[in-house]
Amino acid sequence: MAGKRLRGFRSFLSNKFLKDEEGKFVEAERPMKYAEIISADEWDNFVAKRRNEKFHLAEEKSDATSLPEHVFWKAARVGKDGAVVEAVQNVYDECETLSQTLPSTEVQDCRSVLSRVLNVPEYSDRVRGKGFGVTPSSFYKKPKTKNPTNKEVMETLAELRAQVLQLQNENARYREERCASEAKDTSDRASINCQPKFPEGISPCQLYLSSPTYRIVGKGKVHNTSGELLHHNPLPVGYMKVSVDLVLDTNALLPLPDVVSETTLMRDAVGSFVGWPSDLIFPDAETPTRLTHKVGKGISRRIESVASQKEVPGRKLKSAAKDIPTTSGTKSQIMMRLEKMVDESDIMHGAIRSIDFDEGVFGAAHFEIIAKEDMQQLFEHDELGIAVIHTYIWYMYVTLMRGTELCNRFNFIAASRINATLITKNPTSVKNDLVDRFMAAGDNTTPSLYFLPFNSGNGGHWVLVAMDLSRLIVYYLDSLSGDWSKYPSMKKTVDAAIIKFRSKKNYRNRKDITWVRVQCPQQNNSVDCGFFVLRFMRDIIALNRIDIPKMYFEEYKSYSRAHLDEIKDELCQFIVDQRII
């Protein structure tokens, strides 16, 4: 092996430095790049023997050499020690150049460039240049995959079909048994039919489960309208769409897990829509009313009925008049006009509207889905969902910011990409989404604010996080008591995203990130948090203020119901003008 490598090295030196393009010998001095491994005497001896005609005849019959073998091994040792590592790369570069000048008879040679230049054979069981004992199978590790045969695919499909059929039969048998046992039930459900009939529209209901015991697990509202969709998908046969308002069994499993938010427990479904078996839904004569948040439980959003006060010890309820916001008795003309448009549209029958936002709103292409429940949140002054929050942000961008310097001072972050639920599941992905949003805005060296409407998850509480990346200040605005310590994972994710962004931009972090709890207006019920967040953003943009006073703005020390109604009227007018319905 050493002899073959030595011959290749001599051949390379001869072709590179002693011959011209036509193969004729020329006068050449010792190459300085190899001066450390070839002495002047060795080089002169090498040139003299290469020019001797007898040498070419002897070369074909023996391994006689003009360069001593110790030169080759000396090169190997020096290269290993790192003294001439750069020379190795030069050899490879020169081999590539020399390969372009080789005679056309070698074009068909299937050996690698290095093997042809060194004039050594190619071995199929060895990876050249990777050391001793390295084989292609060990170096190029490729997982062996075996595609299933058609027979295996059909067998698997048959098994799945059998399982589906078995589940369908068990479900049908259970329903028959449930209907038979319900007729003999003497409990407080005896007066309820096995298949209760709900009036068309939205009705209060009780939610039951049959496993492991038959029991009531919560209360809410059943949405009984034709063509009702659950998260824009048709409901399975035998299921109805319900909104969960009150949870009586927090560890109960949902009969139909929410594949969109990956919710599986009742306690995580409060304030959201789920599918429920129609034979386990029963009318509830009591209409649930909403509670205010309990201090220190910012993530938990409980909704309670007046009749259930004994079921939750120690909880004091406000009167319904204070819990449910009421208007002065009349709605604005624009709201009544929009409400009439919705009633006459196919949205009332399950249709939806898809809205494409300007890329400038969230820094990238974005679309939003508007459904019936989103419009009802406006008309009934209910808790706001992400769709309404995003649509009002779009309104502010179009009417207040687009085409002005405000676009360089205020930016928005989509609440659907950054919330408590997503942070719990994949904090790294949420952090990277935040960094991407920061990068999309371009220059962040001048003061500007990034608005993040943050939701505690599954229809929970809304707070506003406003970030000034240039001054490393984060403003926290919460319409309930408490600070960011209620959401430690949110603060950790935001801080990590800001640090990573500044690192990617090569900005110097001269100080730590400062969080400021702004003493902002406070809500007096449990449904206004979304409206307050929208009003916070609107006031800050309208005043064109990057620095938010710790005691909030003197102009808006508190919000009246009229301030919140103004938000709804502006959004209603915008929806009408944009012909969304």
Automatic annotation (TrEMBL):
Coiled-coil residues: 150-177
Superkingdom of the source species: Eukaryota
Q: What are its GO biological-process terms?
A: proteolysis
The protein depicted here goes by the name Ubiquitin-like protease family profile domain-containing protein
Where is each Ubiquitin-like protease family profile domain found? 368-540
Membrane spanning residue stretches: none
Similarity-based family: Belongs to the peptidase C48 family.
Question: In its keyword annotation, does this UniProt entry include Transmembrane helix?
Answer: no
Output the Gene Ontology terms for molecular function. cysteine-type peptidase activity
Which of UniProt's keywords are assigned here? Coiled coil, Hydrolase, Protease
Keyword Coiled coil carried by entry: yes
